[in-house]
Amino acid sequence: xxxxxxxxxxxxxxxxxxxxxxxxxxxxxxxxxxxxxxxxxxxxxxxxxxxxxxxxxxxxxxxxxxxxxxxxxxxxxxxxxxxxxxxxxxxxxxxxxxxxxxxxxxxxxxxxxxxxxxxxxxxxxxxxxxxxxxxxxxxxxxxxxxxxxxxxxxxxxxxxxxxxxxxxxxxxxxxxxxxxxxxxxxxxxxxxxxxxxxxxxxxxxxxxxxxxxxxxxxxxxxxxxxxxxxxxxxxxxxxxxxxxxxxxxxxxxxxxxxxxxxxxxxxxxxxxxxxxxxxxxxxxxxxxxxxxxxxxxxxxxxxxxxxxxxxxxxxxxxxxxxxxxxxxxxxxxxxxxxxxxxxxxxxxxxx
Amino acid sequence: xxxxxxxxxxxxxxxxxxxxxxxxxxxxxxxxxxxxxxxxxxxxxxxxxxxxxxxxxxxxxxxxxxxxxxxxxxxxxxxxxxxxxxxxxxxxxxxxxxxxxxxxxxxxxxxxxxxxxxxxxxxxxxxxxxxxxxxxxxxxxxxxxxxxxxxxxxxxxxxxxxxxxxxxxxxxxxxxxxxxxxxxxxxxxxxxxxxxxxxxxxxxxxxxxxxxxxxxxxxxxxxxxxxxxxxxxxxxxxxxxxxxxxxxxxxxxxxxxxxxxxxxxxxxxxxxxxxxxxxxxxxxxxxxxxxxxxxxxxxxxxxxxxxxxxxxxxxxxxxxxxxxxxxxxx
Lengths: 351, 330
Known about the structure:
Chain A is an alpha/beta fold.
């Protein structure tokens, strides 16, 4: 009997990209399950082209099942819609267009188009996979009735620290994520500026590339004016550098208005960094009871929370312990086992 | 149920109970910490009015550096600026002129309310326009779905491909042409085959990945892509000749005109052949379901003639595609 052919599609494949990493992990799991599988993308990084095909070359191929990694609107999505094979959609969330409108209206328009495309994909797909209940609800609202929650596949950086603060070093507040309006880095800067009233040498490190140069420019000016010398824009970093940043951070702060899963929160917990976050979108689901979730992110409120986590040894130790336990529930082995089963069941539905 | 199963079941229930208890304890603890944090923040604000001023200052800076609509209340910023520009200071020493203080206070209040009114109106207009544009976009999508542009309709059979005689005729017309030929809306490759066999560098493009499969398997260079987008993205002079078929019967006049203009760029000094049926000869069902789409060969000829091209109408034996439009661009 011939092996079942599952062809995987995604908009773009690149290094240090969460959806790309997930796509490769899924590729490995599909092979483990005995399926024939290939990855097709619209854009791929030159270093990865031996593992990824241009989606336009797919036209003369036949598959038994198509699997689409949905994280943005794309031509690949349009192409998948023209195919007749059974479709599985793995949804990683789309940022609401309104968040980009004042900064990059064209990106807002693309996100709008992406959401409409998601609706068409949802109506065509036989099974949906979503990496959180928050995303599952969005996919169901888009029109897909059969959605299973299966985690995004990622490898957290190695554990390298104890619960104590680095002695002699100024306290460091860390956030990891692209500079993007939905992640509200301006609130992180505002909170750090407020905290400097009580802890003058505290620093904020913002790690990640940028989704909007206009937003980045505004953030830099904001930081210069309200928190001069207190904010470091570290840009995109290697995995080793990232592990090092987690290891030396004293608290991980996330004040995003919108996240689909937020892998860095789990990475921080795994690295033993206490987490403080704004209770919005998926963050209560991802963090559980293992971090401080704030309902109010006014600068003073967040600054008081940060000061408490930095100075209350008992609370700090508790958060580190609970964070590690929480991160363990997203361990790579467990995630792969759940995703493997979800993929097997989804393919069975389709063939 | 065996004893072992019972024991395991009891153990599972007990473990779950412990887990739930731990979860409850954790929830209670983080709730308590959060409440303490909020209370402490509030207490500090009360103790130190400077803290609130500092918060407002941080917010004001962000509003200044962010674009309109991205942050905060634009009206407050306008008011701050108006205050500075107007150099109105209601607390200036007044000496023996107490009436001036009241007058300045009244001016400031009127200016405040007027500016707030204006900024509210501007913001409201901006929001309405943005929502309106979104609605237009959504309506357009609905309209596309309704007339079948976005999803190909689905009610009609695909437009049939011309027969082999038409293909041979097209090949003979383009036989002497130099440069690459592209067949837009190539279907399974009927129009591509004779050109390929004649040794002409040719490829076909069709939006339907399944329709092109037989031709691809026969060794033809057929690509699954939107034909209109393929033409729009072509470099100037990229093609020696262009054959357009199939998808052209789903185009309205504006889209057809765009194809003509893009052909002039992509095949400057080349030849364009339009293979289309005449909408006037459609059956009643197709006429109604494809209403407003597709132009007759005579209209295509007219569009090309307007650009200065030499146009020829060539008859064929195919009853659906009776006339080819051959435009020689210059």
